[in-house]
Amino acid sequence: MTEKKPHIAQKSPYAVAVEAGKSYWYCTCGKSAGQPFCDGSHQGSGFSPREFKADKSETVYFCGCKHSGNGITCDGSHQKL
């Protein structure tokens, strides 16, 4: 059985200002119109959003290619795609 691959939303990270204590639902399928966050486009795909809880207010670089070894945040994997 082959592993499902997410859609590459973009080959660069999304810089997002997050607020301390707030939860954000990261899109793992790559098909959300509201990248990098989930809009429900994953329905029936086998993908599920992942929660990111902000510990502090800061800029977070969310993975845009959906292939990061860090999962939710960018690790530069887009440079190898």
From TrEMBL:
Domain Iron-binding zinc finger CDGSH type: 11-48, 49-80
Xref: InterPro entries: CISD (IPR052950), FeS-contain_CDGSH-typ (IPR018967), MitoNEET_CISD (IPR042216)
Keyword Cell membrane (UniProt): no
Protein name: Iron-binding zinc finger CDGSH type domain-containing protein
GO molecular function: 2 iron, 2 sulfur cluster binding; metal ion binding
Keywords noted in UniProt: 2Fe-2S, Iron, Iron-sulfur, Metal-binding
Pfam families named among the record's database cross-references: zf-CDGSH (PF09360)
Cellular component GO terms held in the UniProt record: cytoplasm
